[in-house]
TrEMBL record:
Name assigned to this protein: Kinesin motor domain-containing protein
Database matches in Pfam families: Kinesin
Family designation: Belongs to the TRAFAC class myosin-kinesin ATPase superfamily. Kinesin family.
Positions of region (Disordered): 287-330, 423-448, 602-676
SMART domains registered for this protein in UniProt: KISc
GO molecular function annotation: ATP binding; microtubule binding; microtubule motor activity
GO biological process: microtubule-based movement
Annotated organism of origin: Effrenium voratum
Biased composition (Polar residues): 303-313
Residue ranges of every copy of the Kinesin motor domain listed in the record: 17-384
Key words of the record: ATP-binding, Coiled coil, Motor protein, Nucleotide-binding
InterPro entries to which the protein is assigned, alphabetical: Kinesin-like_fam (IPR027640), Kinesin_motor_dom (IPR001752), Kinesin_motor_dom_sf (IPR036961), P-loop_NTPase (IPR027417)
Length: 676
């Protein structure tokens, strides 16, 4: 007789209660000042709830499997509570991790985490694929990902192609083989952690979050992440699909009058979830047996001789459930059909999946009522049993066992590879991609815009700066030209007026006073100053230079610069002249140039690259009261070439003209010592 196909072979189940862990989020900011609720472990599985003031809460002892306080990290939570379910899912069981709690209590933080502290989902993906592109293939498995949300009682595919599919509601159907399933849901094949997290990030962008009074990023929908594994090479596994579900439930909002429409839908679906749990946990049974008869069964089995079963701690509870529960017959008693959430979670609640219920609690006293509701819900859920198909060994034929050896070999190979990768330096491992883009996208958008704005401002400032720098260099150039002009003009004047014999300080001052600029002070005053030593030679030099202002071509800011650049009193320039001597030369040359300009109608040439440089003009040759040959060559050439050879009568006329204008004697004056 032909044996039934492995797929159809009915396997016994083992009873597995829901694992319930509680996580209390930390309080931050001003909320921390008002104190926090605290859970203190009393014994193995009981926690005592303390109010912020420290006193115990009446009827505040709750049984949980584990409890995590505000200091616990996501990694710790994953390692201690969720990891074994993930491993079981890869090994061939259905597994579900549900995050339940009031709004802002840290469900999404625990499931998705942050880029700095990955949550259960990215850690599970990392665990499954082990940083290897072909991690699952090594185990002979393929994986498919679906990600959807239930928003206002509509099932929306978060991975759907195209905008119309992304918004249309999908129906939840039921058939005998698959149970409840979402029709038309996209199942994307994934080969690596990177694939999965990229798709999750895309789904997160579509998922609905909104700012509420309690949370800036409050989930407005229940999000269900589902990774389906299919055996590839084993005849037994080929017919078996197992699923890992990770569910981030929306937070209940107990402020009914403030709740929005989606808030009301959230509360409604959570109410039905509570109803299902309540029905499932009634007497801890849903298969027709009372709690008492279950205990009796246990006792009978425990005392039965030759039971032949080794006993891990919880196996006593599991052994009595070797008979498959009569689910179909009793399913009517459980109101799964009342909401889409309870339909899609059917296998996790009293079904065939290993289930972990993570209950998150906000420890602020202002959330006390909701916290207590959550803790009571957790207590109730803990007495719900699921029924897991029992281990492969008892279910398989000899033929299947040979596959089991192959499986074991593949698993070992996979684990060895994973070990090798972990032993390699961290730098060579690709980082876990950012799965939180959707959730944080709004904040990132704002930062991005801010950055763009700052960049534009920076560019405008750079342009402004460049324009100013250009203007400055143009001004520098003009200043240089004016300096050159001043330099040239003053030497020209010097050539005319310097006496052949050394000039006394007195004579010098007289000559100074001949300038109209000193109209405010009498000669006698100035002479007196000099005789009394009240005006030192340096201030006299400055006074001389200031006369240059009276020369129109020198009346510019370059004059000031010139003054500032004057050498210190008594110091000599490169040619060995004192500053005083140089200043005298400057002024005289300027006057001489003016008179030459008047005579010839020429204008002073602008300093240019073809002209003698300033340093050249202050050369050691320029030591005497007269001008050197070189100096002569630097003087501007008058338009009339006969100007230096002017007849005596013309020179006299010039001389008279200068006198009448109050200028020092012109080039025709013989005592200048300059040859005409
Ligand atoms: N364990 C924790 N450590 C640090 N911060 C936390 C923790 N739990 C929650 N938070 C912070 O609290 C805020 C609310 O958390 P989260 O959004 O996860 O709450 P939620 O329960 O998902 O709320 P909702 O149901 O409204 O979506 C977030 O800013 C989150 O970063």
């Amino acid at each position: 007789m032909r044996s039934p196909s492995p797929a159809r072979r009915e396997r016994p189940s083992i009873r597995e209660p829901l694992q319930v862990v509680v996580r209390i989020r930390p309080l931050v900011g001003s909320a921390a000042e008002s104190g926090a609720w605290r859970l203190e472990q009393r014994d193995g599985q009981h926690w005592v709830c303390h109010q912020p003031q420290g006193e115990k809460l009446e009827r505040g002892v709750f049984p949980f499997d584990q409890c995590f306080d505000g200091k616990a990290t996501n990694k710790e939570l994953f390692d201690k509570a969720a990891k074994k379910l993930v491993q079981a899912a890869v090994a061939g069981s259905n597994a579900s991790i549900l995050a339940y709690g009031q709004t802002s209590s840290g469900k999404t933080h625990s499931v998705l985490g942050t880029p700095y502290e990955p949550g259960i989902l990215p850690l599970a993906v990392e665990e499954i694929f082990g940083f290897r592109d072909d991690g699952l293939q090594v185990l002979g498995k393929q994986a498919k990902l679906s990600y959807f949300e239930i928003f206002n009682e509509k099932v929306i595919d978060l991975l759907a192609h195209g905008p119309s599919q992304a918004t249309s509601s999908l129906p939840v159907k039921e058939d005998a083989g698959r149970g409840f399933y979402v029709q038309g849901l996209r199942e994307a094949p994934v080969r690596s952690a990177e694939d999965v997290l990229r798709l999750v990030a895309r789904g997160e962008e579509r998922r609905r979050y909104a700012r509420t009074r309690w949370n800036d990023y409050s989930s407005r929908s229940h999000a269900i992440f589902s990774l389906c594994f299919e055996g590839a090479s084993s005849a037994w596994e080929a017919t078996r699909r197992t699923k890992l579900n990770i569910v981030d439930l929306a937070g209940c909002e107990n402020h009914k009058h403030e709740a929005s429409e989606d808030g009301r839908h959230i509360n409604r679906s959570l109410f039905f979830l509570g109803e299902v749990i309540s029905r499932l946990c009634k007497d801890g049974r849903r298969d027709g047996l009372s709690q008492r008869s279950l205990s009796d069964t246990r006792r009978r089995q425990d005392s039965a001789p030759n039971s032949g079963i080794s006993t891990p701690r919880h196996s006593a509870r599991l052994r009595d459930a070797r008979t498959p529960p009569r689910r179909e017959k009793n399913a009517d008693f459980i109101p799964y059909r009342d909401s889409k959430l309870t339909r899609v979670l059917r296998s996790s609640l009293g079904g065939d999946a290993l289930t972990l219920l993570l209950v998150t609690v906000h420890p602020s006293p202002s959330f006390a009522e909701q916290s207590l509701t959550s803790l009571r819900f957790a207590t109730k859920a803990r007495s719900v049993d699921n029924f897991i198909p029992s281990g492969l060994d008892s279910a398989r034929s000899n033929e299947d066992r040979s596959f089991s050896v192959c499986d074991a070999a593949r698993i070992i190979e996979g684990l060895q590879e994973k070990l090798r990768r972990l032993e390699r330096p961290k730098a060579s491992q690709p980082g876990v991609p950012d799965a939180y883009r959707g959730r944080r996208s709004q904040a990132q958008e704002e930062l991005h815009e801010e950055l763009q704005k700052l960049r534009l401002e920076l560019r405008a400032k750079e342009r402004e700066l460049a324009a100013k720098a250009q203007l400055l260099s143009e001004r520098d150039r003009q200043l240089g030209q004016l300096k050159e002009q001043l330099h040239l003009a003053t030497r020209f004047e010097h050539r005319i007026d310097l006496p052949s014999e050394p000039v006394s300080r007195h004579e010098d001052s007289l000559q100074v006073d001949a300038w109209p600029h000193d109209a405010g002070r009498s000669y006698a005053d100035q002479e007196g100053d000099l005789a009394d030593g009240r005006a030192d030679s340096h201030s006299r030099s400055l006074s001389l230079v200031s006369r240059a202002e009276d020369i129109p071509c020198l009346r510019s800011s370059s004059f000031v610069t010139r003054q500032q650049n004057l050498p210190e009193e008594g110091s000599s320039v490169s040619g060995g002249e004192t500053q005083e001597e140089l200043v005298e030369k400057l002024v005289r040359l300027a006057v001489m140039q003016i008179s030459a300009s008047k005579d010839s109608g020429t204008v002073l040439p602008a300093a240019g690259p073809q002209e003698t440089s300033v340093s050249e003009r202050w050369s050691p040759e320029f030591t005497g009261p007269g001008l050197s040959e070189k100096e002569n060559s630097c003087l501007p050439v008058p338009a009339n070439p006969d100007v230096l050879g002017t007849p005596r009568s013309k020179q006299k006329a010039d001389f008279r003209f200068r006198r009448s204008m109050g200028c020092p004697p012109g080039p025709g004056k013989d005592r200048s010592g300059v040859k005409g």
